[in-house]
Amino acid sequence: MVLMLPFLLMLSQNAHAIDTEYALKAGFLYNFARYSEWTNSPTTLSRFSLCSPDSNFIDVASTVLKNRAVNNTPITTLTVSLTETDLNQCQVLFITSGTLTLWNNASLNELKNVMIVGETEDFIAQGGQIRFFLSGGKVRFEVSPEKLLSANITMSSKVLRLGRVMEQ
Amino acid sequence: MTPCVIAQEPLSNLDLDLDSLMAMDVQVTSAMKRAQSAFDTASSIYVLTKEQITRSGATSIPEALKMVPGLAVRQLDNNQWAITSRGVASRFSAKLLVMIDGQSFYTPKFAAVYWETLNVPLYDIERIEVIRGQGGLLWGSNANNGVINIITKNSIDTRGLHADISSGSQINHDANLRYGGDLGNKGSFRVYGHVRDGDESDKGIHLEPADFTEQHSAGARFDFTPSDEWSGLVQGNITESTLGQNFRGVIDETNRNVSFSGHLDRTDSRIMARIENRISDDANQMLQTSWLKQSGSQTFLQEDFSSFDVDYQMNFLYGDLKFDWGLNYRYNDILFAESSFVRSDGGYNTLEQYGALVQAQYTLIDNELDVILGAKIEHNDLTGWENQPLARLVWKLQPNQVLWTSISKSVRVPSLIEFNDDFTIDGQRVEEVSPITTGIDMIDKYYIKTYLNGNNNVKSEESVSYELGYRLSQGHWGLDVSLYHTEVSDVLAVEVDANAEQFLPIFALLQQGEIALAMQSLTTTSINFDLVSNAEVTTNGGDIILTWQPSDIFNAELGYSYNTFDDNLAENTFRAIGYDSTSRQLFAKSDIKIFEQHRLYALIRVENSDAYNVDNYTALDLTWQWAFHKNWSAAVIGKNLFAGSHIEYNNTRETYTIPNYIDESVTFKLTAKF
Questions:
Q1: What pLDDT is stored for residue B341 in this prediction?
Q2: pLDDT tens by residue, B144-158
Q3: CB distance A13–B366 less than 8 Å?
Q4: Terminal Cα distance for chain A, rounded
Q5: Which residues of A have a CB under 8 Å from any CB of B?
Q6: Residue B85 and residue B144: Cα distance in Å, rounded?
Q7: A135 and B231: CB-CB below 8 Å?
Q8: With the C-alpha atoms ordered B246, B206, B115, B451, is the resulting torsion angle positive or negative?
Q9: Fewer beta carbons under 10 A from the terminal one: N or C of chain B?
Q10: Which residues form the TonB-dependent receptor plug domain (chain B) (predicted)?
């Protein structure tokens, strides 16, 4: 408890909107991971990596997802550069609105086996498979199952039906 | 499902269940006329969750409200209800603000809510927030005793088909159909319809029950999200009802109440639109406009009411300060045809209200102590400017413990019938009101024409309320305690003006032996019951709610509410609504998932009160649901079990409706979702 106190104070000082929003989005990403299957991945991952080029997001996500696991594989959160070497270790990649330019400028080959999620308009057209949006102050998402499939990921219908499914 | 105590968890303890994440607001400033976190709200709040509503098998809003500890929900017959909190419930005066998505259903004519025609599809309700006491007084008019805000789901969350049909011992059929879908990638919609054909009660008190229901409703909601910064919604509903009822009124020279069976035709329409804008990460604004139209027609009463509302609110954070302000305007159009027993003094066919609210929450000690100051200032056409200030303190003793306290003043503006109308009421006998009796039965037992007169000397009731609350969330347990003391002044009372001098010429005639002339003179006399604002009422009470959720498949709740009302009346007056009384309620709920496909929901209510002129009763509601297919489920719903035939409300002096016995009922329900 005492150990947690400075940590809580730190959170409360900047526990403003953006933290809550990122915390919720980190929670959604965790659920996307839990309810999806990476069909082409080695069956024994030693860790499940959630990555973003945005270190602010990773700070929040590491708090929210501390001690969480996806199918018994512990989650790690990583701040990454948008290079193929870095991204090859990721299962989920989140491109925040602040890092969209980096994403659009990165010249990457098509990433397989990575779930790519964004929060900006047209992100699915820009190489993503899932995009968050806000409706009435709450987080909702759009998803393209085909694009997920071409990255060798299938998402459970339980989650798909909560999202707005984008047809090709 | 932890209905009442949801701790504002630090981010590390965020509930990562997808349902919870979808229900959370991204910004603290986005709470418009609703509670942000029930746990650290400085008022006595109870959140009725969508899970509770569906699992209980409730078939109407009032039935769902029966689950809320501290709400007095009394059923008059199979379609009429009296509902309030921290007060004595009455059919026509509730001091309770009822809203659907922030749209107020306050009618300045009666200050009543027509619960029987308030159609909201229960399966598309997100949650119902109930504030007991004055905690929501900034939210709108008539919120003195509490607020009920019914929040419906965003249509993006109701895409697909829902169909259900129920039938049972008191419902011939009740069917719902909804279809929802996307509108491109910027919006979504749902359309729905509802029909209900309800039976009469089994047993009446004086008359054969006539309380059948025939009701058709249709509605739609559209949500638009052009960008993350802007969103909008438009929704509307129309409900047509034919409701049977037994009622009474004075319509002839006997000057006595005559009982009737008849029916009431009503059409209730509502439409609202809201635009929300996220100005920045720390600021939001909202503009909402709504229109309400209610028309009712029955043998002796015709009414037409419509209102138009515009509300603007802005909420922002500035350092340690959270600031909310808003403006509101309401236009009411009231048409009430003269009838043999209600007459209007005239002059108030339209009423306007306008005002402003401001609330500031300042963090004195980070994450520990917040102070809240607010006020609502509003002008109305009957009593002019009124102001309602409040001050609150929220002290987070520990991350899992909150202590709050509040002092507030609220104003209850008289309804138009109290201010401007006269009623002919059940006649008084000469011997009851005259200083001397004659010994001649024909005279002494003659019923004199008697009026209840609303008048413009009626003032606004003012109440000052002191509240204290404590919440604890510990492991699987939650505790929510609230206590209050409220003093109300200028309370409406009825003063009897027997006008004794009017009998003197009659006694003179009698002394001259002119009995026939004396009788004839009697027919020209009248007694006046005048509404006056000179009573004082002190109310004390509190609510304790204990929740226990040891696992995902079981949760339970125990609630106890106590309210006592103590009148201080001037000589020769009596209370218009309620009287010295004490109400106690005990609630026990359990919700258990048995095997994979079955669920059992039980609610026991013990209603112990001397406020309604009825016996105490204990009722069990029991619902068993069986999800026998991924798209289909069946339910058996038992209501008022073991309570026997009982009367829940018998303050017949206050109502025009004649209540019936309430009986146990069994309903079968089949639900499909695709």
A1: 78
A2: 899 999 999 999 999
A3: yes
A4: 50
A5: 7-9, 11-13, 15-21, 23-24, 27-28, 30-31, 60, 63-64, 66, 68, 119, 121, 133-140, 142, 159, 161-162, 164, 166
A6: 9
A7: yes
A8: positive
A9: C
A10: 39-147
In the block, tokens 């730190």 appear at A10
Residue B385 sits at φ, ψ, to 5 deg, of -75, 135
- The mean of the pLDDT values for chain A is 85
CA distance B357 to chain A (A): 22
DSSP-derived 3-state class of residue A53: coil
Mutate which: A134, A139, A168, vs B, most B CBs within 10 A: A134
- A5 assigned to some structural domain: no
pTM as predicted: 0.91
Give every CB contact of residue A5 below 8 A, 6+ residues apart in sequence: none
Structural domains of chain B, with CATH: 11-673 (2.40.170.20)
The number of residues in chain B equals 674
Judge whether B414 and B383 are in contact, CB under 8 Å: yes
Please list every residue in chain A whose beta carbon sits closer than 8 Å to the beta carbon of residue B10.
Answer: 8, 11
Contact A11 B11 (CB under 8 A): yes
A56 contact partners, CB below 8 Å, separation of at least 6: A18, A22, A96, A98
Confidence of residue A43 (pLDDT cuts 50, 70, 90): low
Interface residue B281 vs chain A (CB under 8 A): yes
Tens of pLDDT, residue by residue over B353-401, are 999 999 999 999 988 999 999 999 999 999 999 999 999 999 999 889 9
How many domains, in total, are found in chain A?
Answer: 1
Render the burial of A2-34: b for 16+ CB within 10 Å, e for the rest: eeeeeebeebeeebebbbbbbbbbbbbbbbbbb
Range of the domain at A64: 16-165
Residues of chain A contacting residue B318, judged by C-beta atoms under 8 Å apart = none
Verify whether the Cβ–Cβ distance B367 to A9 is below 8 Å.
Answer: yes
Rounded CA gap, B43 and B409, in Å?
14
A52-87 residue pLDDT tens: 999 999 999 999 998 888 888 899 999 999 988 888
Write the DSSP assignment of B472-497 as a string of letters. Answer: EEETTEEEEEEEEEEEEEEEEEEEEE
Nearest CB neighbour to B276, from listed A64, A68, A137 = A137
Q: How far apart are CA B532 and CA B453, in angstroms?
A: 9
* CB-defined contacts A:B, below 8 A: 110
Q: Is B22 on the interface with A (CB under 8 A)?
A: yes
ipTM metric: 0.86
Whether the CB of B225 is below 8 Å from some CB of chain A: the reply is yes
Q: Does B27 touch chain A (CB under 8 A)?
A: yes
A17 and B26 within 8 Å at the Cβ level: the answer is: yes
Q: What is the CATH number of the domain that holds A131?
A: 3.40.50
Least reliable range by pLDDT among A52-56, B247-251, B496-500, B634-638: B496-500
- Residue A147 covered by a domain: yes
Coil, strand or helix: which one is B238?
A: strand
Q: Does B319 touch chain A (CB under 8 A)?
A: no
Q: Is B500 exposed, middle or buried (0-12, 13-18, 19+ CB in 10 A)?
A: exposed
Determine whether the interchain pair A166/B225 forms a contact, defined as Cβ–Cβ distance below 8 Å: no
Tell me whether B317 touches chain A (CB under 8 Å).
yes
Burial class (CB in 10 A: 0-12, 13-18, 19+), B637: buried
Average pLDDT, chain B: 90
d(CA B551, CA B663): 35
What residues are paired with B221 via a beta bridge?
A: B190, B235
3-class secondary-structure state, position A107: coil
Q: Would A142 be classed as within a structural domain?
A: yes
With CA atoms as reference, report the closest residue to B293 among B303, B282, B283. B303
Q: Is residue A11 part of a domain?
A: no
For residue B28, give how far its alpha carbon lies from the nearest alpha carbon of chain A (Å): 7
Residues facing residue B632 across a β-bridge = B672
| Coil, helix or strand at residue B68 | coil
Residues 6+ apart with CB under 8 A from B425: B250, B257, B341, B450, B451, B452, B529
